[in-house]
Amino acid sequence: MGEPNDSGATAAAWAELTATARRTAEEGLVVGTSGNVSVRVGDLVLVTPTGVPYDRLGPDDTVAVDLTGRQVTGTLRPTSELPMHLAVYRHTDALAVVHTHAVHATAVSTLVTELPPVHYMTATLGGPVQVAPYALYGTEELARNMLRALEGRTGCLLQNHGTITYGTTLSQAYDRTAQLEWMCRLWLAASSVPGRTPSLLSGADLDRAAEQFRGYGQGDAPGPGVPR
């Protein structure tokens, strides 16, 4: 990660980042300028700027910081959630991070401290998804709470706030976000049936699913995302 950053690679990463950010809005995972996306390129972290609609971002709007948070590229200010993104990169092998305010996931974050394992896709995130205790957005406290909830996981819920997931590619991080929102929607639907309690998967069930995922796909994927 110590090599100089290639301008071509940075430009390509920024194009993919803005496309991913637009996708979060198009698919209803964020509203307006909420949520944010980042990707690591060498020692730089490219990140969406604060308060700018994603459909207005172009090649000349690239925002990049180093791993200390010092801005090295661009005139637009980075997202206010930069502490969370940098914490993920410093403490995991992440190369991409997606943060959203997805409706069903945020609703679940207000109800439980852990998303009940209602589906085997829970295994793709490392196990039952934890809820990070509430802290003001953009703070180091929120970043610390998030890191504790992410232990052994590639995604978590943020209480009364939203979701955060990471991966080795933007597409993988996005897939994990979309799957987490789907699982939250599933649990809310199942748990809302009067007089019935959703059946849950055991730890052994999730372990077997995780093992099955290791052989899933065509052999060139960066790890389990959403099975297709």
Entry keywords:
eight-stranded mixed β-sheet, 14% strand, alpha+beta
Question: Care to give the gist of this entry?
Answer:
With 228 residues, this protein is an alpha+beta fold. Helix content is 36%, strand content 14%. It has an 8-stranded mixed beta sheet with strand order 4-3-2-1-5-8-7-6, sandwiched between helices.
Tell me the layout of helices and strands.
Blueprint: H1 7-26, E1 36-41, E2 44-47, E3 64-66, E4 71-73, H2 82-91, E5 96-100, H3 103-109, E6 131-132, H4 140-150, E7 155-158, E8 162-167, H5 170-191, H6 203-213
Parallel strand pairs: 6-7
Antiparallel strand pairs: 1-2, 1-5, 2-3, 3-4, 5-8, 7-8
Helix pairs in contact: 2-4, 3-5
Please list the strands of the largest sheet in the order they lie side by side.
4-3-2-1-5-8-7-6
Shape: globular
Low-confidence stretches: none
Q: Work out the helicity level.
A: 25-40%
How far apart the termini lie comes to 32 Å
What about the largest sheet?
A: 8 strands, mixed
Order of helices and strands: HEEEEHEHEHEEHH
Count of DSSP E strands?
8
What would the average pLDDT be, to the nearest integer?
A: 92
> Which secondary-structure class do the elements indicate?
alpha+beta
Content of β-strand: 5-15%
| SS summary, helix count | 6
Radius of gyration: 17 Å
Walkthrough of the structure:
With 228 residues, this protein is α+β, with helices and mostly antiparallel strands. 36% of the residues lie in helices and 14% in strands. It has six helices and eight strands; from the N terminus they run αββββαβαβαββαα. The chain has an eight-stranded mixed beta sheet, sandwiched between helices. Helix 2 (82-91) packs across helix 4 (140-150).
